[in-house]
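Loading example: each entry is read as two labelled lines plus one structure line.
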Amino acid sequence: MAPLLQVENLTIGFPRAEPVRNLSFEVAEGETLAIVGESGSGKSLTALALMQLLPRAARVSSGRITFDEQDLLTLDASQMRRLRGREIGMIFQEPMTSLNPVMTIGRQISEVLKVHEKLSGRAARARAIELLNLVRIPGADKRVDDYPHQLSGGMRQRVMIAMAVACRPKLLIADEPTTALDVTIQAQVLDLLDTLRRELQMAVVLITHDLGVVAQWADRVVVMYAGRKVEQALPDDLFKDPLHPYTRGLLAASPRLKNDFHYRDGALTEIPGSIVSAVGEAGCPFRPRCTQARASCGHHIPPLTVPAPDRLVACPFTSSIKAVPDAVALRY
Amino acid sequence: MPLLSVTDLKTHYQSRDGLLRSLDGVDLFVERGETVGLVGESGCGKSTLGKTLLRLVDPTAGRIEFKGEDITRVDQRRLRSVRKSIQMIFQDPFASLNPRHTIGEILEAPLVVHKAGDSAERRGIVAGIVSKVGLPADSINRYPHEFSGGQRQRIGIARALLLNPELIVCDEPVSALDLSIQAQILNLLVEMKKEFGLSYIFISHDLSVVRYFCDRVMVMYLGRIVESADNETLWSDPCHPYTRALMEAVPDPSRPRHAAPLGGDLPSPSNIPSGCRFHTRCPLATDRCRAEEPEFRSIAPGHEVACHFADSIN
């Protein structure tokens, strides 16, 4: 069966930069795919490209995005508008900036239903209350008349989710949905997303920088660095045996709760430098920060290879480089 | 004598919704050379505590002593000299750097205010600190927007170190940074601590970072400290149900997923629940918890908890 979403060789260009280059991935129906990377990795632009909501200066310079057997890049604005919000829903990091502050949440949810499902005002309001119940907002029939500022951050994110799933989309794109929330609230929101995914049989593209979230909520993981996919794996494989030096570096650099490593025992493993060093780099974008880099890494961009089933990695030296020789890394 | 000691500190704000009891009776101390972590959800009062310690906000009641001196009510003149010794590092370094000033100007300003040396000496001090925190020497002629997030935080650290402080309050210093940069900044803070014999109060919502970085940890909930212990004890033997819930909520690759440990949101500090302030979200709450506020009591040397059932929680 064809995947629900297939992205092939996507390149996003600004006049003087290409923040996403040659990116391919697929999402099966009902699956959660996590895309991880730090700021500047191109993960959010990828999400915007899927929705055709790229900023004005940016455009898809090559590649193909197939969703549910339609080529998204050939759709015109009105066809895309029909798809957005109905077939593909999206939620963002900061719900306060994506909600209209002078409109009640009930009216904002109703708007989606009136536009896409042609519901009457009364039916839309009733459905909005159902949706607020679905996302477990207590006292939904009263809350429906609240304005966004009357809600907590976690509640606002629930409202965003209610809007995004109002038309039972086949795909939900969640761009850092819990980054602005406390861990306790994050756990509630991720729980909710996963329940809805099962109940509504949605696929989810979860964009995040949090490896812990990935480990617990994703079916598959794509690791991006400087606009490219550098590794892809099942979460268990990725955490047990990260292959790309960048992924290894990230895992080694992150302190863990279930890890009795303390500053008095030694320093955390650093990834030197910053992602800015990838700009204008001829070969592997990670080369300037890679502790294992060799001369040949500067010659050409390493292609993705298949080192094991269900895995991809863009580094030719993964079999020969040693595990990170470090106390922290060895604990994983 | 501890470096800093705080007794029954309260900071209340008047708002349209009534009295906000952001800080509602906090006791704490920091020994010389120690790193004390403060954890809790947004709205628990941890940032208000940081600001009150520096007297950026005036406390409503209580007492702050720094090296034995009561600084709760001292005048601005005296306060200025106290602040030489207590500095602060903020979460968003960009917001705390004037975009129109070069790094050199930004870093020289505190020296001018505190009349440290002549112009040439000041430039020497600035150049020294810039290299200490790992910034390139030409940084002093550049503007904040030319730096990445990690480098900006290095500038924030440099500024905090300039006046040779003894205590630095770090308010979420790595929360806005990417993981690959976070380790660099934490390592830098550890190095600076060793080199200058600093003490830190480390405010963070990220338990994993606190686990690595702190010697002693205090857990805050709605303006009060609900558990306090040395680092090892807290993680191996958490006794407050809130501490446990916070720890369980952290997603960790080495554990299978489980249901969210806490329902609901933090109640508003304008409407603090009766009895134990955590009872509205506590899975173990009883009638006693709803009626009677638990005392913050010692259950082992150096381990204090505000829960009626702290002894039987295991």
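Residues 4-95+169-312 of chain B form a domain with the Rossmann fold fold (CATH 3.40.50.300).
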